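Same chain as my last thread, 626 residues:
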Amino acid sequence: MSNYTYDQLYDELSALEKETGTVLADSPTVTVGYEAVDELPKENHDQPMLSLDKTKDRETLRAFIGDRKTLLSWKLDGLTIVLTYQNGELLKAVTRGNGITGEVVTNNARVFKNIPLRIPYKGTLVLRGEAVITYDDFEKINQEIEDVDARYKNPRNLCSGSVRQLNNQVTASRNVRFYAFSLVSAENVDFQNSREQQFRWLAGQGFDVVEYRPVTAGTLDEAMDYFENQVRSNDFPSDGLVALYDDIAYGESLGRTAKFPRNAFAFKWADEERETVLLEIEWSPSRTGLINPVAVFEPVELEGTTVSRASVHNVSIVRDLMLGKGDHILVYKANMIIPQISENLTRSGNMEIPGVCPACGGRTLIRRENDVETLHCTNPECPAKKIKAFTLFVSRDAMNVDGLSEATLEKFIARGFIHEFGDIFEIRKHESEIVSMEGFGRKSFDNLLDSIEKARKTTLPRVIYSLGIPNVGLANAKVICRHFDEDLTKLRKASAEEISDAGSIGPVISGSVASWFEQERNQCILDHLMEHLILSKDTVAEESPISGRTFVITGSVEHFDNRSDLKNRIESLGGKVTGTVSAKTDYLINNDITSASSKNKKAKELGIPILTEEDFMELAGIEKEI
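reply #2:
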């Protein structure tokens, strides 16, 4: 596209936005800044968000509808969000949480793919909708994660984690979309007592509204058939339908029970089941030592695809189902996606839980936690554990060692070249053997040495992530290391309580980290590894005027590429950048110091100085480029 054509389209879009008053988050006319926060504040909902009564029976749904006009729509499977707009601007976004209290995710909502940042309506608007990630985006994101064990299980889990990120740049990369399904309130708008009118009005404001069809008991079957056929090809996750009375006054007059509102009812898909024969249970070791049971059965057609395997998750489920070879079982796809066993018809119970690991022959151990039994390999030298652990260790976000694929690692481990992480950096000891290996040669070995040499220079967060500590990803590793000033000695001696003080780190993660460092063998492995590494971190100017000061950045910038660039400069000079103005903030940076924004108001209330970029540059001793 030529610049001329682009400019024409850009001007046309600008005119349309001005005419309609609607501006979407991904519009090229707006720049949504990325911002990291230390935590997600919690906030109570003005109205409790109740769950819906539900059924899998079409006749039960028909009885609920009766002769009243009802809107039948998708029940989306993502994360429910409440949006508030004032004066045409997105003011606030809060997750459903427990229905009473949710988390404020306004920064993240601003980078959803299709959310309106500005709307023509200037009153106060509150609406609810579902944040979702499509199956296509889910697959793409999972393919980029090299560690199979770290991949997301379904789009709902990925969406929940994406919406609740502390850094909204991560949220933006996940292509989260928002679909409105309920208007809570809108001042001085006459909706003619109709939910459908509300949906149409929301669409006119620029929102993507969940697809719906008006029905009565008599027309329900046609609409249900449409939705049941459509769900097979939808790119977005849905676990059923919602029926909502169109008559607003009638629906509200019904009130609610302790758990459910009476103006709506949910319909859950009746899962397609097939009978088949269980052939065996495969026991698959992971890098953490957990051995996962997987049912292998005679292939059957489910929801349009052939399936022959299903995860059984843990020992407890194997025993509860009384599984055994040759049993006749019923299988289905949970949410029409994930193969599961719903029932064992013959319940022979002859399946033995292996006493030894299928990969190494080492002794297994059944652990019980929260009434759930899981099987673990106790052999620290288990090759299956090692291969998966080393695969994570050399991955891009960890030590980033090119040339060590899982297949190559398997060969090196089998030949005894690698026992611990530090052995990778001593691979030259085996040069003659590796060069003569099939598929290897002098050039491949030299390239591997170059990659290993580059990997020696790294950062502490990458090291901590590469160790494969359960539940610790790179983002969490960065938070933890920053909390301990990137001092490994402090971290090694820290208790779970001290680790949990690191911002967003909860008890599960802090417990995993503390437990890992408490094991003497792990300490020895880490000591060996650290002999070969050179750690670095951002250089901090000793005499910086802003060293130790805390800043919040808002609005657009002029002298830096973007707010992230300004944040990096502050941190390089020893300052700290957070996302929210609080009593701990020293300065707010905003080029529009007269703005009536919430951050400006908060700063003024707390007596915190508001600096323009030029004020900041003068304070920090940064010369402006001419």
